[in-house]
Specification:
150 residues; alpha/beta; 5 strands; 53% helix
Length: 150
């Protein structure tokens, strides 16, 4: 089997296309703020752009909270989790840098609130503190207030 110049170009084009799809839908990248978050494929939402929009909103509306997400979250799983179709989860026994955020409700502010809430649990776990729902509900409540003011 000989490899022709045309085959090399086709293989290169397919690789570029796959890289574009991966970066567009499955990875959030912000070099300026050193923020790199993998977004898992969702079976309920064919586009992970809701997660990316929520992260961008958080970046501009609440930079301090955005920094916490960037420091404490490496993976966001947008599939249905224990929080149901409107919430999220943090599983302490799994990857301590992964949060689950359901985007099925499709409201941007709600998605931002869930990201902040689950990041709060990730921080609690990473710091060796007990899970405290009250603290995390207060965090997502504050972010929603900040976004309304923004």
């Amino acid at each position: 089997m000989t490899i022709t110049y045309g085959k090399i170009i086709k293989i290169f084009a397919v690789c570029i296309l796959l890289l574009f799809i991966y970066l567009r839908f499955f990875y959030y990248l912000d070099f300026r703020n050193d923020c790199h978050i993998k977004i898992r494929m969702s079976w309920l939402e064919w586009s992970n752009l809701s997660i990316k929009r929520a992260l961008i909103t958080l970046k501009h509306g609440a930079p301090d909270d955005y920094k916490k997400v960037c420091e404490h979250v490496r993976v966001i799983n947008p599939d249905y989790a224990c929080g149901g179709f409107q919430g999220g989860c943090f599983y302490p026994g799994a990857d301590p840098y992964e949060i689950h955020v359901s985007t099925s409700q499709r409201t941007l502010a709600w998605t931002v609130g869930v990201i902040v809430h689950e990041t709060c649990h990730a921080i609690q776990f990473q710091e060796g503190r007990p899970m405290n729902e009250r603290e995390c509900y207060a965090a997502d409540d504050m972010i929603l207030k900040k976004l309304v003011e923004f």
